[in-house]
UniProtKB/TrEMBL annotation:
Chain ranges passing through the membrane: 569-588
PROSITE patterns: EGF_CA (PS01187), PROKAR_LIPOPROTEIN (PS51257)
UniProtKB keywords: Calcium, Cytoplasmic vesicle, Disulfide bond, EGF-like domain, Glycoprotein, Golgi apparatus, Membrane, Protein transport, Repeat, Signal, Transmembrane, Transmembrane helix, Transport
Cellular-component GO terms for this entry: clathrin-coated vesicle membrane; Golgi membrane
Organism of this sequence: Papaver somniferum
Residue span, EGF-like calcium-binding domain: 514-557
The family this protein is said to belong to: Belongs to the VSR (BP-80) family.
Signal peptide: 1-23
MF terms (GO), sorted A to Z: calcium ion binding
GO BP term, pick one: protein targeting to vacuole
Designated name of the protein: EGF-like calcium-binding domain-containing protein
The keyword Transcription belongs to this UniProt entry's keyword annotation: no
Keyword hit for Cell wall biogenesis/degradation: no
Amino acid sequence: MKEKLGFCLFILVLILGISSCLGKFVVEKNSLRVTSPESLKSVYECAIGNFGVPQYGGTLVGTVVYPKANQKACKDFKEVDLSFKSKPGGLPTFLLVDRGDCFFTLKAWNAQNGGAAAILVADDRDEPLITMDTPAEENANADYLQNITIPSALVSKTFGDTIKNALSKGEMVNINLDWREALPHPDERVEYELWSNSNDECGPKCDSQIEFIKNFKGAAQVLEQKGYTQFTPHYITWFCPESYLLSKQCKSQCINHGRYCAPDPEQDFSRGYDGKDVVVQNLRQVCLHKVANEVGKPWIWWEYVTDFAIRCPMKEQKYTKECADQVIQSLGLDLKKIDECIGDPNADVDNPILKAEQDAQIGKGDRGDVTILPTLVINNRQYRGKLDKGAVLKAICSGFQETTEPSVCLSEDIQTNECLVNNGGCWQDKATNVTACKDTFRGRVCECPVVQGVKLSGDGYTHCAASGYQRCAINNAGCWKQTRDGKTYSACDESSNGCKCPSGFTGDGVTCEDIDECKVTGACKCPHCKDCKNTWGSYECSCSDSMLYMHEHDTCIIKEARIVGSWNLVWVVFFVLAAAGGGGFLVYKYRIRRYMDSEIRAIMAQYMPLDNQVGERESHENLLSRGNV
C-alpha cells in the first residue's frame, strides 16, 4: 500500500514538472459544414476524437439524428429498441448524443453498434473544445476500444443545442464532415513522428502501440526507402523537481540525477523494473535511430523495436542491455557508437539526446505539446484517431500534395479511384486511351496530361489538345488523317495550331473528303487534254498526239520538241565546257614555258656572261679609258 502511495506521489511530482515545462495542448479540429436547413447553413468547428477512424483526406455526408431515449449513449441502443442504420438510397446517420455519465469511447461504441456512421458528442458545458481520449490505463481494458471504426467529434454546447432545436421543429439537419484540410499537405514528402514508449507493461495502450509498430513496419520502411517520407521516433521524459532529487522515487525512476524520468512500468516500486530502466531503453532506441540514419538506413529502427519487443519482454525478465545488444548486433549496427551516444546515465550532466527530446515535447507552431502516449505527428500536426495501420496510412497519404502520392496511397484498400467511373467527368480520347483524369488521395483532378513529351493544353474537362512542336505526333493533334493505296494524307500542320485539309481534299480539317477535280475544279481542260480521271487526293489526265501533260500547269507540251531541246542544251553545255578546258590548257602551257625559261637563264648566268652582261662590261671599260685621258 505504501509503495502504491509512493507511486501516486511520484506521478503528482511528474505532473508538477510537466506543468512547469510544457506550454500548450492543441486540440486537433476538422471542418463541419451544415448544408441544411437554411437557417443553420455555415461552417463550424469540431474536435477530432482520439479513437475511431477519422477520414483524413476525405469527407462524409450524413443526416443528424438525436435519439428519443438513451441520449447519452451509455447503454446499448438495442435496450431501447432504436436503430440508426440508413435505408438503401438514404444518407448515413450522424448520431448526436450528450456528454456525461460514461466514457466517450463507450458512447462511440454504442453508436456504432446502433448503425450510426459517425457520432457527434454535444458538450454539456460552455468551454473551449477538448480532445476526447480513450480511458486511463486502469479503465482501458475494455475489448471494444480497438474495434471502434466510426469517426467521432465533439461539438460545442451552443451548437449542439441549435441542432436539437432544429430537429425538434421537424427540420432535416444535413452535415458534411470534412477532414481534407485536417492535416497540412505542402509537398511531395511527408514528415512524421511517433512518440512512444519502450515500456511493455502499461496495459492495452502499450499492447496496441507495439501491435501497430509490427503491422506498420513494412509500409513505413518502403515509404522511407523510396524517399516518400521522413520518420523520426521520439520518447517522452520528465524531470524530477529539485526538492525531490534525493527521494527514493526520483532515484529509482530517473537518470542523470533526476534530469530524465519515466513512471514505474508496473506502477509498483517494490517489484519489477524501474522507470530509469525505461528511460535508458528509450534513449537506446533514439541513439539506434541516430546511428542508423548516419549510415543511410534509418528504417532499421522499425526492425529493432519489433525484434526487441519479441525477444526482450519485461514479463520474461529480458528487458536488459545484454538482450538489447544482441538484437543490435543481429541488425549489423555499430554497438560502440550507440553506447557512446547513450553516455553515462549516472553522470550529473545533461544528456544532449534526452535534452533535445524534452525540448521537442513542447509544441511549436500549429503543433501542441505532446502529453498523450502514443502520439503520432504528421506534417507537424497531431494525428487523432485509432492507431491502426490502415487509418494511419490514410492519414499519411492525406499529407502529400495532390498528384504526388505514392502508388500505395491509391490502392483500393486506401481510397476509391474516381477515374474508373465515367472517367471522373474529365476529357478523354478513347482512340488513344489518353485521359485528363488523374486519381489522387483526395479525389480526382482533371488536368490535361503530357503524352510522348508533349504537354496537352485545355480545361481538362471538355477539351485537351497538343500544341507546338511535335503536336502532330499525338493522335495527329485531333486532325483528319487517312492512308489508302500506300498514300497517306494528313490535315495536321506543325507550323500552325489548326487543322487544314491538304490539297485535293475539302473539309474543316477534322474531317476531309476527296475533291473530284475533273468535275469541281475544271482540271484537264486544256486544248489537247483528254480522259480526265479522278483519284484519291488528286486526278490523272492524258494528252493527244503523243504530248506530255504538265500537272502543275494543267497543259500539254510536245514530247519531241522537249527531247530535241534537251539534247541541244546538252551539246551546248558540252562544247562550252570543252572550249573552257582547251583554253585553260593553253594558258597553263604558256605559263609553264615562261617559268622554265627564266629558271634556265638564271642557271646559265652563273657560268657565262650573257649578251646584255657583255654590253654592260664594254661600256664600263670605255668610261675608264676616257677618264685616264
